[in-house]
């Protein structure tokens, strides 16, 4: 952890918070990630060795508490009192970015969005009474990253990066930016449909229900 050797509180906070990936890890911790695997899934592109290093740095700084997981397998990571106090800081960062920066396809990794949908924002109480397989085709992503599948069961959901070889109930053709803008509340689902930025084919009842299975991001509230 780099020291600026300055008494300024901003400099001292930056020594902890301005390291690459650190705000992402704090966001994941503050939204419920507890295990190493959950934290890694919420930070695609971050190496596991760097993740371990950052978590240890945050533990030494008193921001993260690491203790044995109650299941007896592995460790549990959770924000300390100082870590919990960072919630309004991260919310302020997000609010600032919402006002001053536009989403681009590079910012709209559909795999990350669908992972969040399945593991953080899934509206379990609204799910159908049978499995629904939805294929997503993202028109603004590079080849090899355009097609994903979401498998929704009665009480859980998962993302597949490869064809699950199951009957597809719905097919969503979308701009990844449109799906991201809807997820964070910048646009409504109906707006994206009218603008043909999101198109859904399949049974009408499932097509209408699909967006209700997502509780949407904190920025949509």
Attribute tags:
alpha+beta; Arc Repressor Mutant, subunit A; 2 domains; five-stranded mixed beta sheet; two-stranded antiparallel ribbon; 10 helices; 7 strands
Structure description:
- The chain has 221 residues and is of the alpha+beta class.
- The protein folds into two domains: 9-99, Orthogonal Bundle (Arc Repressor Mutant, subunit A), CATH 1.10.10; 105-220, SCP2 sterol-binding domain (Nonspecific Lipid-transfer Protein, Chain A), CATH 3.30.1050.10.
- The protein is built from ten helices and seven strands.
- The protein has helices at residues 9-17, 22-30, 36-41, 48-60, 81-84, 87-100, 110-119, 176-183, 189-194, 204-209, and strands spanning 64-68, 75-79, 132-138, 147-152, 157-160, 170-174, 198-201.
- The strands form two sheets. It has a five-stranded mixed sheet with strand order 5-4-3-6-7.
- The mean pLDDT is 92.
Structural class: alpha+beta
Which parts are unreliable, with pLDDT below 50 for 5 consecutive residues or more? none
Work out the count of structural domains. Answer: 2
Helix share bin: 25-40%
CATH H level of the largest domain: which superfamily?
Answer: SCP2 sterol-binding domain
By CATH reckoning, the class of the largest domain would read Alpha Beta
Q: What is the number of beta strands?
A: 7
Number of helices: 10
CATH topology of the largest domain: Nonspecific Lipid-transfer Protein, Chain A
Compute the CA-based radius of gyration.
19 Å
Give me the oligomer status. single chain
Average of per-residue pLDDT values: 92
Any guess at the CATH architecture of the largest domain?
2-Layer Sandwich
Distance between the termini: 35 Å
């Amino acid at each position: 952890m780099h020291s600026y050797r300055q008494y300024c509180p901003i400099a001292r906070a930056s020594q902890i918070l301005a390291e690459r990936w650190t705000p992402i890890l704090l966001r994941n911790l503050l939204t419920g990630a507890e295990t190493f695997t959950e934290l890694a899934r919420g930070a695609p592109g971050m190496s596991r060795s760097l993740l371990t290093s950052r978590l240890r740095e945050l533990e030494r700084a008193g921001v993260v508490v690491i203790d044995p997981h109650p299941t007896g397998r592995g460790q549990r990571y959770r924000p300390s009192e100082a870590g919990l106090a960072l919630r309004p800081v991260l919310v302020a960062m997000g609010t600032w970015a919402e006002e001053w920066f536009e989403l681009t396809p590079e910012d709209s990794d559909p795999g990350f969005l669908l992972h969040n949908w399945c593991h953080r924002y899934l509206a379990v109480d609204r799910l159908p009474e049978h499995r629904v397989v939805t294929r997503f085709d993202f028109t603004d992503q590079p080849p090899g990253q355009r097609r994903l599948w979401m498998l929704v069961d009665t009480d859980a959901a998962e993302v597949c990066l490869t064809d699950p070889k199951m009957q597809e109930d719905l097919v969503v053709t979308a701009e990844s930016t449109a799906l991201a803008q809807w997820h964070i509340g910048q646009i409504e689902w109906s707006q994206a449909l009218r603008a043909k930025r999101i198109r859904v084919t399949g049974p009408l009842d499932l097509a209408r229900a699909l967006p209700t299975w997502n509780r949407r991001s904190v920025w949509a509230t």
